[in-house]
Amino acid sequence: MAQSLKDKVALVAGATRGAGRGIAVQLGAAGATVFCTGRSGEGRRSEMNRPETIEETAALVDQAGGRGFAARVDHLVPAEVRALVERIEREQGRLDILVNDIFGLTKMEWSKTVWESDLEEGLRLFHRAIDTHVITSHFALPLMLRQPGGLVVEINDGTAEYNSEHYRVSFFYDLCKGAIDRVAFALAHELEGRGTTVVSLTPGWLRSEAMLDAYQVSEANWRDAIKRQPHFAIAETPHFVGRAVAALARDPERARWHGQSLSSGGLAKVYGFTDLDGSRPDAWRYVVEVQDAGKPADVTGYR
After folding, report:
1. At residue 112, does pLDDT exceed 90?
2. Alpha-carbon distance 104 to 74, whole Å?
3. Residues 139-188: pLDDT tens digits?
4. 15, 106, 175, 294: which sits with the fewest CB atoms below 10 Å from its CB?
5. Closest CA to 11 of 51, 77, 58, 52
6. Residue 263: φ, ψ to 5°
7. How far, in Å, are 149, 153, 157 from residue 291 at the CA level?
8. pTM for this prediction
9. For the chain, what are the domain ranges?
10. What CATH homologous superfamily does 9-216+238-283 map to?
């Protein structure tokens, strides 16, 4: 499957770290040209104050076999997004894959009602999580629609089915995650019959850079975190959801997924890809059947 996306051009909005970086790298491993955007570049950090940069992500895309281009863009600023799409059009003449991954959570407020929440932070989260996706789609989709076969991926946390039945963390977090499912639903309606497929896609329990730091472990010894949180045993690398996006992009029949809410673990069963360790963690089935059910942590049959 190497170089299977050699002629494809992708924009991964929010590729600095986490799922966005994993997706960018795996698209690169399939040969794609990938524009990696974010606000943390060399010598400048976003308010998340993390060390990862878009230049590092672009270099990883190159190392994987693709062509990576770093572009420092604030996707809340329409003029910057417009300039980005104009650059892609000028340099590549097309856009085949759009991944809306931006979220930008800086403060997690667990189980906070709307009146208990930090209003300023909550509204800021909503704008970063939703407005960025809307602005990016507004400018990118006209370029994508010039040729058939496009793929739009809205990255979320939780499937539509799970999110519709469960309160997610806090008022603003819950609102954002439900809204992304609706963004994908609305885009699916508007793109119907236009040759472009849109899906909502969720990774499982992600071993992002920030999550590993939170548990004071690295990817090399991530299992040590299971001592603190046994259910972390189901965790997956950002490359797993990256391989899910690459599999969708390669699939000539991906239109069968149009408008659906998908998970990395669910798609792994269909397409046969694995995480870096060769396993296929099915996190959302595990969350429902084991974690939420109050059973002891046991990933047997789930990865």
Report:
1. no
2. 11
3. 999 999 999 999 999 999 999 999 999 999 899 999 999 999 999 999 99
4. 294
5. 58
6. -130, 155
7. 38, 27, 16
8. 0.95
9. 9-216+238-283
10. NAD(P)-binding Rossmann-like Domain (3.40.50.720)
Q: What is the pLDDT of residue 1?
A: 60
Per-residue model confidence as pLDDT tens digits over 42-88: 777 776 667 789 999 999 999 999 999 999 999 999 999 999 999 99
What gap in Å lies between CA 105 and CA 51, rounded to an integer? 15
Q: Which helix (H) or strand (E) holds 241?
A: helix 238-250
**CB-CB contact of 60 with 279 (8 Å):** no
**Token pair recorded at residue 27:** 């698209």
CB 268 within 8 A of CB 236: no
Report how far apart, in Å, the C-alpha atoms of 265 and of each of 22, 273, 277 are. 15, 9, 14
Residue with tokens 């008022």: 171
